[in-house]
Amino acid sequence: MAKQKVSNAFVAASWVALGAGMIGFITGLARAEMELNEKGYYFTILLYGLFAVVSLQKAVRDKMENIKVTDIYYGLCWFATLSSIVLLVIGLWNATILPSEKGFYAFAFLLALFGAIAVQKNTRDNMMED
User: Fold this and answer.
1) CA gap 58, 44 in Å, rounded
2) Second label for 115, Cα 20 to 30 Å away, from 11, 48, 60, 69?
3) Nearest Cα to 118, choosing from 45, 44, 61?
4) Neighbour-count burial of 32, counting CB atoms closer than 10 A to its CB (0-12 exposed, 13-18 middle, 19+ buried)
5) CB 52, CB 80: distance < 8 Å
6) Mind listing the pLDDT tens digit for each residue in 57-114?
7) Nearest to 28 by CA among 118, 95, 78
8) Prediction pTM value
9) What is the pLDDT of residues 16-32, one digit of tens each?
10) In sequence order, what are the residues at sequence separation of 6 or more whose Cβ sits closer than 8 angstroms to the Cβ of residue 33?
């Protein structure tokens, strides 16, 4: 059975989600009235989360396609993904910013993670077409 090519609309929507989440999160940090070390904490969590979800998507997909993935790597991918989310929640819970700002960072972060997963999926699907 031939696999259907990923639509250009979904590829574009995935990149838009990734870009909107990342740019929104980073722009919010740049404009925020918080210490530089706080900004660095949130920026690092964003990068950590993005790397974690891309690694997790690849590991899950590899397992689905019967490509060997060690249990330790698979577990680390899940741990990294969940810990990035938990670290963001802890940081926002203790932050002295408005609740609306906390919500903004949470949703921008989740949008960026979703976009990264979708972009990775599309990239892999399109590579398999070639």
Assistant:
1) 21
2) 69
3) 61
4) middle
5) yes
6) 999 999 999 999 999 999 999 999 999 999 999 999 999 999 999 999 999 999 999 9
7) 95
8) 0.91
9) 999 999 999 999 999 99
10) none
